[in-house]
Amino acid sequence: MEQNNIVADEKKHYVVATAIIVKDGKYLIAKRAPNEKAFPNRWTVPGGKLNSSEYTNRAPDAKELWYNVVEDLVAREVKEEVGLEVKELDYVTSLTYIRSDNYPCIIISMWGNYHGGEVKLCKDLTEYAWVTLEEAKKYDLIDGIFEELEMLDNFLKTGKRERWKKNNSPNKN
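-> structure tokens emitted (173 positions)
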């Protein structure tokens, strides 16, 4: 039964993972191309959708279970979108987004340390920048990204994890 124009099967979602990449105390952000359906010309972090074939095409890790699926997704998407390798992936937060086609997406925000490579943008991204938290305020970030950067910045400085909360982000539209 459809409610609020959201997809009829409440159990179906896209699973998406993103990565904040840390290098020398700065965070990698990239600008989405103008032809992107969602958030064109806005700044974000690399990430993408999980396809079931990414794990079903390999042997299960334990009987009928596949482990590290999100971590593998993040590593692949970072490599495809910005040409970099990451290590020591860890959790930042999670969120849900309803796409323009009314399909809900569960987004898992991760972070990882830069491990190698030179930035090479895919066709869906047009620019990139390595920024501090303060410098990130100058960019038109997708809503919520600044708060995620802020959460990670705080964690890296204090070792304390916090839940996402809306602040007075400099990127309100």
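The chain has a mean pLDDT of 90.
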